[in-house]
Design a protein that fits this description.
- The structure is a single chain.
- By secondary structure, this protein is α+β, with helices and mostly antiparallel strands.
- Among the domains are: about 90-205, Immunoglobulin-like; about 400-635 and about 665-720, Lipoxygenase-1, Domain 5 (Lipoxygenase-1, domain 5, Up-down Bundle), CATH 1.20.245.10.
- The protein contains 20 helices and 18 strands.
- The strands form 6 sheets. It has a 5-stranded antiparallel beta sheet. Strands 5-4-7-8 form a 4-stranded antiparallel beta sheet.
- Strand 7 and strand 8 (about 175-185) form a beta hairpin.
- Helix 8 (about 380-420) packs across helix 9 (about 425-435) and helix 12 runs antiparallel to helix 16.
- It starts with 8 loop residues before the first helix and ends in a 14-residue tail after the last helix.
- It binds fe (ii) ion (FE2).
- Fe (ii) ion binds near residues 402, 622, 678 and 725.
């Protein structure tokens, strides 16, 4: 414990960081309530199993499934699927074409899918009759011996279309595991001639949704038509961490339903585990509301904001959070533009010197162009303006950086990769980092995008969707650059650079090692790139006719464009593709399906950068946003994601004691539940390598930098290998 004489901000912050740090154990108790799956997590009442009898029944059911799995494993041992192909005179062919089950009229072939043709004898033994792959045009022609397939002893026949289910490393070598994606039973009596034609086989395989503007995969329900599944251990991790938090939320919701006066916001806060700001406030009251903390967190906390140099004043910077102005929004919550001016202190950390708010601050004056500027000389008003900026920064970071910048951004790469990469060694490089993001995004659709954010912030669902598309319109792997450190104290930027460099080193090593095979299967890279480009969102404002809009709107758009361009390192001058009438944001990795020696150097360079970008976003960038949520949005009055107008003229410029502008009790418990859910339930860490799917060389490179990262406040063991929460 710290001696009371040693209560300096530095020692207090260090002690509180240690005290409130989330651990990721995986124990588990038998009669502990649990979620059946991640998709049963709800912002209201999650579907959890609490009744001991039900838990016992669940246990029995689990045993039944284990027994069933055991029997399946026994059957596999008794009746192995041997690689030997039966038949000598291949005198017949199984033919057809595999295509995506798209709603469009164009036929899009699925290339390189592993295919198998099996017979099963009356005694249950498997006989492999043929195998092969779909060709680049989706067609296949599997030769087999007709007599062998029609033999009296053969009871049934099946044609199986397989996919890559997972990758694992053993003794440093990558192994690819296939599972059956689709099976077609064939009647023996139908095999009569030289050829049996299965015709076009449309598969709902990593299909793009058509109801949203950004690239998302079709999933109606987890466990039914999802293209991937979580591992059991991932679901266990959720149970272990979240059940106590879930029970706390349920208790609050019940209390609010029965008598909302029976519980206060302070009691709700106190029922959840202490976070960083609550801990610091207990030891150093007022410190987390001060200018030093504000600047430090904007630079090195969850926000990791961009400091845009002031064009008129040297040494001054602007951080800008754009509000609800041109997005569909509700009337309950404020969300003005918040522009914060910083200068650097002698210690290299930023301090805020002015805050400009543009847009309505109360329910009475709704003029969207009203502007007010505050400085530290404004006393209490300065404190209140900082809170508004902090809250806006929290929402923008969650929506723009966390959801759009990592989750949605990565999903577009994941879909394109899983649709197209099969023979290419890039599968072993990318799949371990791209897996599960589409599953968690599907869960986020319901609880975050449709339920929580529209009820706890100014965004409606439509407004939120439009914002995500806008921000994704400035995210391109090709122009991405790491953040330049502003000073020695800019630890986030230094850690980002360190991680990017080691990721590039790993990717460079991998691609050089597998260069020949990657080039041999360049067609897959081309198809990956085409899917990526064709489905990426239009460049921000490229579809907007700026000539007929209000000059003030135009100026604001230009300001937003300038800031977002710098924030996400977008280069408007790069040559980009026009596809389907839109200028597409994501640059192609390649525009050729076979690589000529003249093109090789540049295209391989592009590939290395794009792969580094995907892995960097899936690991370091996402982990940063995710794990710092609990520190920066884990105290309702410090930073909720939306302040209500209330009914007073002061509106959102009011002290924290004015609860009419704070989230209501329901939103407060839901907010605490959310920040716990997202920060506490991480699973799948690079160094822990739970699924044995991380290349040992990547782990080695990261482990070698352990001390350098620790000096910057980054614990390498906490960096996730993929985006799955
Ligand atoms: Fe996340």
């Amino acid at each position: 414990m710290t001696n009371t004489n040693d209560l300096t901000p530095k020692t207090v912050c260090a002690e509180c960081l240690k005290k409130t740090k989330i651990g990721y154990d995986d124990g588990g108790r038998f009669f502990m309530p649990h979620f059946k799956s991640i998709n049963h997590v709800e912002v209201g009442y999650s579907r959890i199993i609490t009744n001991p009898l039900t838990i016992f029944a669940e246990w029995l059911l689990a045993k039944f499934y284990a027994l069933k799995d055991g029997l399946v494993a026994l059957a596999a041992k008794l009746f192995p699927r041997r690689p030997k192909i039966y038949g000598k005179q291949m005198d017949s062919w199984l033919v057809g074409k595999i295509i995506f089950a798209t709603q469009e009229n164009v036929e899009v072939p699925i290339h390189h899918l592993p295919l198998e043709f099996w017979g099963r004898t009356k005694l249950g033994q498997w006989r492999k009759l043929s195998e092969g792959y779909s060709a680049p045009d989706g067609t296949f022609r599997l030769p087999f011996e007709l007599r062998c397939a029609r033999r009296f002893g053969i009871r049934s026949l099946r044609f199986e279309i397989c996919q890559i289910s997972h990758i694992y490393f053993k003794d440093g070598q990558a192994n690819t595991v296939h599972n059956t994606f689709h099976c077609i039973k064939i009647s023996k009596s139908d095999l009569i001639g030289m050829e049996y034609n299965l015709r076009n086989i449309p598969l709902c395989f990593w299909e793009y949704r058509t109801d949203v503007k950004n690239p998302r995969v079709v999933i109606k329900a987890h466990g039914k038509d999802a293209p991937q599944q979580y591992t059991e251990a991932r679901i266990e991790a959720i149970n272990e961490q979240m059940i106590p938090v879930e029970l706390t939320k349920i208790k609050h919701l019940e209390q609010i339903k029965l008598d909302s006066d029976s519980i206060t916001l302070a009691e709700i806060q106190a029922d959840y585990p202490e976070n960083l700001t609550v801990c610091i406030e207990k030891k150093l009251p007022g410190y987390t509301r001060g200018d030093d903390w504000f600047g430090e967190r904007m630079m090195n906390g969850m926000n990791r904001g961009l400091f845009l140099p002031d064009t008129e004043e040297e040494g001054a910077y602007w951080m800008k959070y754009f509000g609800k102005h041109n997005y569909d929004s509700n009337d309950e919550y404020a969300f003005p533009d918040a522009m914060i001016k910083f200068r650097l202190k002698a210690d290299g950390l930023p301090t805020p010197v002015a805050i400009k708010l543009r847009g309505p601050l109360n329910a009475i004056n709704r003029d969207p162009w009203q502007e007010r500027t505050f400085t530290p000389a404004d006393g209490e008003l300065w404190q209140q303006a900082k809170r508004v900026a902090r809250v806006n920064g929290g929402l923008c970071t969650e929506v723009d950086e966390h959801f759009a910048g990592t989750h949605a951004n990565l999903e577009q790469y994941a879909i394109a990769a899983y649709r197209n990469l099969r023979f290419s060694p890039l599968t072993t490089l990318l799949f371990p980092h791209l897996k599960e993001v589409v599953l968690i995004n599907h869960t986020a659709d319901g609880i975050l995008l449709r339920q929580y954010i529209p009820s706890a912030t100014a965004f409606t669902y439509e407004g939120l969707m439009a914002r995500i598309v806008d921000v994704m319109g400035v995210m391109d792997w090709k122009s991405f650059q790491t953040m330049k450190p502003l000073s020695e104290a800019h630890s986030y930027a230094k850690a980002e650079q360190l991680f990017w460099d080691l990721t590039y080193q790993y990717v460079d090593y991998f691609i050089e090692l597998n260069r020949k095979e990657i080039i041999r299967h360049w067609h897959e890279v081309f198809c990956f790139s085409e899917d990526l480009v064709n489905h990426s969102v239009p460049v921000f404002l490229s579809d907007t006719d700026m000539t007929h809009i209000d000059p003030r709107d135009r100026a604001r758009f230009e300001e937003m464009k300038e800031y977002l361009t710098a924030q996400f390192c977008f280069d408007y001058d790069l040559p980009r593709q026009h596809r389907d009438g839109h200028l597409r944001t994501v640059s192609p990795l390649t525009l050729t399906s076979t690589l000529s020696p003249e093109q090789e150097k540049e295209e391989i360079q592009n590939l290395k950068k794009a792969c580094t970008y995907m892995i960097f976003v899936a690991t370091f960038l996402h982990t940063w946003a995710n794990e710092h949520q609990y520190e920066d949005i884990g105290e309702v009055l410090y930073n909720c994601l939306g302040l209500r107008y209330g009914d007073k003229e002061s509106g959102i410029l009011a002290p924290e004691s004015d609860l009419s502008i704070a989230p209501d009790l329901t939103r407060s418990t839901q907010m605490m539940w959310f920040s716990n859910l997202l920060s506490r339930t991480e699973y799948g860490f690079i160094t822990r390598n739970e699924d044995h799917d991380i290349n040992p060389y990547f782990c080695e490179l990261l482990t070698a930098k352990k001390d350098e990262f620790a000096a910057l406040g980054v614990i390498i063991e906490d960096i996730e290998s993929r985006t799955n929460i």
